[in-house]
Amino acid sequence: MAFRGILQSALAMESNRSVGCGAVLVAKKKSCDGEVVQNPNRSCWCDNSRLISFSAHYLACTNCGTLVSQAGLGPDQIPVRDDSSDFYGREYWFSYQREHLGLPNIAQRARLDLPERCLYWLRTLLTYKLPPARTLELGSSHGAFVGLLRNAGFEATGLELSPWVVDFARQTFDIPMLHGPIEEQHLPEQSFDVIVLNDVLEHLSDPKHHAIPNLKTTLS
Ligand SMILES: [Zn+2]
């Protein structure tokens, strides 16, 4: 009966764009103004090259609203082989998040995000798909959203780049986790009914060619 209460809470939750809305909605709110940048380093995954200024490292797509990294890591720098030195290794979730983004560490976020952005994301997902369904969250971090989805009746799985984060999520929320980029998973076709990317697409340098083709074949 626990998941019925979660579903009711999520469905009743007021829409709040300041909570957990991610970069896409933030970009959409800003997309009405701003100069189109000439010759951007990268186009959007949707093929649109008309991008406007957003921040020092990101432009925003005038078509779909996604942020587009202009100086982000290349495809070879995304995977985590060494948790102590690779960018998205353990320290990304501790020192980098605190020093560069002013955010609590991953252990604190596991608690803070659960009743906040995770509930908002659940409410959004339910407008597309009700349980039972198979879901995969790319960039699931501490795994709170995957745990919430499982409690709501979904067959949910998470994916993270860092072996340390994968273990942390498994131990914290007792959830199934995949390790490594989606391109390295070799999942059977139609493995999932829903694939979630919250604050992920804008971190990838070329998602159209490296992530999205795999996601398409993995979806049912
Ligand atoms: Zn776009």
Description:
By secondary structure, the protein is α/β, with parallel strands linked by helices. The protein has a domain at 3-16 and 113-218: 3-Layer(aba) Sandwich (Rossmann fold). 34% of the residues lie in helices and 13% in strands. The protein is built from nine helices and seven strands. The strands form two sheets. A four-stranded parallel β-sheet has the order 6-5-4-7, covered by helices on one side. Strand 2 (58-61) and strand 3 (67-69) form a beta hairpin. Helix 1 (2-12) packs across helix 5 and helix 5 (117-126) packs across helix 6 (144-151). The chain is globular, with a radius of gyration of 17 Å. It starts with a helix and ends with a helix. The model is unreliable at 13-32 (pLDDT under 50). It binds zinc ion. Zinc ion is lined by residues 44, 46, 48, 61, 63-64, 66.
Look at the structure and give the CATH class of the domain at 3-16 and 113-218. Alpha Beta
Q: What structural class do helix, strand and pairing data support?
A: alpha/beta
Strand content: 5-15%
Rg value: 17 Å
Tell me the number of helical segments per DSSP (H or I, 4 or more residues long): 9
- Low-pLDDT sequence parts: 13-32
